[in-house]
Amino acid sequence: MSSHLATVPDALQVHATDGVAVALRPLRGGEEVLVAGRAITLRADIAQGHKFALHDHRTGDEVRRYGLPIGRASAAIATGEHVHVHNLATALVGECTYAGGSGAARQAKTPVETATWLGYRRSDGRAATRNEIWVLPTVGCVGLTAEQVVRAAQTRHADVIARGGIDGIHAFAHPHGCSQLGDDLGGTRALLAGLAANPNAAGVLLLGLGCESNQLAELLEAIPLAVRAKVRTLSSQGVGDEMAAAAKIIDALVADAASARREELPLSALTVGLKCGGSDGFSGLTANPLLGRFSERLASAGGTPVLTEIPEIFGAEQALLERAVDASTFEAAAELVNRFKRYYLDQGLPVSENPSPGNIAGGITTLEEKSAGAVQKAGTAPLASVLDYGQQARQPGLALLEAPGNDAVSSTALAAAGATLVLFTTGRGTPLGVPVPTVKVASNRTLAQAKPHWIDFDASRVLDEGREAADAAFLESLLAIASGQPTAAERNGQRAIAIWKRGVTL
Description:
Keywords: Lyase. It comes from Novosphingobium jiangmenense. 30% of the residues lie in helices and 20% in strands. The protein is α/β, with parallel strands linked by helices. Strands 20-21-19-18-22-23-24 form a seven-stranded parallel sheet, sandwiched between helices. Helix 3 (182-197) packs across helix 4 (216-222) and helix 3 packs across helix 11.
């Protein structure tokens, strides 16, 4: 999607065909604002990040932003009027037949990519940004036991962690793994297997209870053979003192992991998850396009950006699908989007049940508008692969991953897909962190200044410094984090997982 940016002190029109502009600061009714060479007199107060009309719209007219339709006018809208939930409504319906699939998109290779970072090269050829020991409980019954095991191990190995022998020891408790059936249990198993395979985990202890549905043998079998050597298992019911048995296993895993050393690696060695949460009217102007430009660079270098949050591409999916590298990828992506829509419809829910109250307060009105901003995280990179929930990204280029929009669930799914960094844009702010470094990118300066203990990069720099300078600063920040500099979430101890629960509970 091409954009024509017309930056002015007060407001921004993203694309030349747009019928709305976005306030870059709070604007007052009666104020005259210059947008793309036109003077617009505002008919109401416009909050920062909110929209106002650049021309009259009749009831039923299409309203455009980012060069895409974001809904239809539910009432007549006059030039200079506030455009939001009172006069703009979604036009989304259910499953669609998508055009395209010719395979015309081709991955362009960057002639010379000089960016490098310091990471750990694993035995299967993939690269890690961290060198850690993870304890993954098979079932919620031993979640607290896993945390107890890790607290004791962190004390025993505090000196090893302090001198950088390993980057940490962590447990990731969850409430699932039993009283689940069929695909629901399969999803839990696939997600945990994906986490166990993540390169950032140098050693993994799968801690079971013994009688749960998610049996250790089946979970171990779901882990790719190429990485299974780093995984150990323990059934708590199968030993006398599970704490002592777990400690012995972790001590051995730490000893093995401590021999790893960082080495200089190319940008192409990165697999990066793309996520937005608590979006506002600025997310699609600053933070998401910033990620998009990085995604283009990463994909063209041979790296792997991973896009997810399938419900948050509804309304903007055609532009993404058209970039599929071949017909089979197009068909798989189209089927995934329609399958997700059917997931809503089967529950008697509309596919447009979004945006959230926080999104609306920040200036986003419809799901189409949210989606048009959200897909910019992938830039214009060709769509190279489609992944089921829990499946690993194994080929270069942009991947589309099955997962919902929920911040914790989708971010965990990105880690399970093999992402060793998650780039998380936000306009409202969140302290959330997942097992891999979670890089928070603020869409606006107010958030960045108010929550420096949450935020790693202020994307509003794009408006002040220009794209080139902001992109360079962002890349420098990412490479430092990939090389070991802790994120705000890591410094705050914010690490957790959430599993997508879709079925009945027995």
